[in-house]
């Protein structure tokens, strides 16, 4: 006896399912990373790692205002994060070489070392979480997320 394939959900049903799935994945990933950091003795939160990741991969040194815009947060929220990382000796505010009126966020040597250790930890978590995905499926997920991410970046996070 052959099993009848279930009908594919409509586009509308699929889109309606996305928020719950995305929130579930983000929450689970955050919890896995937090636990991995604790096991490794890394004193960073996933949110702080994200901030460091933005700074490390920026095309140029970022000001606090630029960081807040990338994070889509208000400047005071970004400032609290930066102040904490600065007190921990992971970031410093330095005078911009392009515009001496501006201060840019620069990782310290300690910050670069901790970032490298935490990045390796995040990559290990991701590898573990992706073990059930074939290479082809993993590439599809990454392409889909990259496309979704770039469409959000180019629209300022608003609907097009």
Walk me through what this model shows.
The chain has 160 residues and is mostly helical. It has a domain at 19-129: Arc Repressor Mutant, subunit A (Orthogonal Bundle), CATH 1.10.10.10. Helices cover 65% and strands 6% of the residues. It is built from six helices and two strands, in the order ααααββαα. α3 crosses α4.
How is this fold's topology laid out?
Elements: H1 11-40, H2 46-57, H3 64-71, H4 75-87, E1 91-95, E2 103-107, H5 109-129, H6 135-154
Antiparallel strand pairs: 1-2
Helix pairs in contact: 1-5, 2-5, 3-4
Keywords:
two-stranded antiparallel sheet; 2 strands; 160 residues; mainly alpha; elongated; single chain; Arc Repressor Mutant, subunit A
Helix content: 55-70%
Helix count, DSSP H or I runs of 4 or more residues: 6
Approximately what portion of the residues adopt beta-strand conformation? 5-15%
Helix- and strand-based class? Answer: mainly alpha
Count of DSSP strands: 2
CATH superfamily of the domain at 19-129: Winged helix-like DNA-binding domain superfamily/Winged helix DNA-binding domain
What would the principal axes of the Cα set say about the shape? elongated
Q: Catalogue the unreliable spans.
A: none
Widest β-sheet, arrangement of strands: 1-2
Secondary-structure element order, N to C: HHHHEEHH
Give a brief outline of the structure.
The protein has 160 residues and is mainly alpha-helical.
């Amino acid at each position: 006896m052959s099993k009848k394939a279930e009908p594919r959900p409509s586009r509308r049903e699929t889109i309606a399912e996305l928020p719950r799935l995305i929130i579930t994945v983000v929450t689970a990933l955050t919890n896995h990373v937090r636990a991995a950091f604790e096991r490794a003795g890394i004193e960073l939160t996933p949110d702080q790692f994200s901030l460091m990741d933005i700074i490390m991969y920026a095309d140029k040194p970022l000001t606090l205002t630029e960081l807040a815009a990338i994070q889509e947060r208000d400047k005071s929220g970004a400032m609290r994060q930066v102040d904490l990382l600065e007190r921990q000796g992971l970031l410093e505010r330095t005078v911009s070489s392009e515009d001496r009126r501006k201060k840019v966020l620069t990782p310290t040597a300690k910050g670069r070392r901790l970032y490298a250790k935490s990045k390796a930890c995040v990559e290990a978590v991701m590898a573990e979480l992706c073990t059930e995905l074939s290479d082809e499926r993993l590439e599809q997920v990454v392409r889909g997320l990259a496309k979704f991410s770039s469409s959000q970046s180019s629209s300022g996070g608003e609907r097009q």
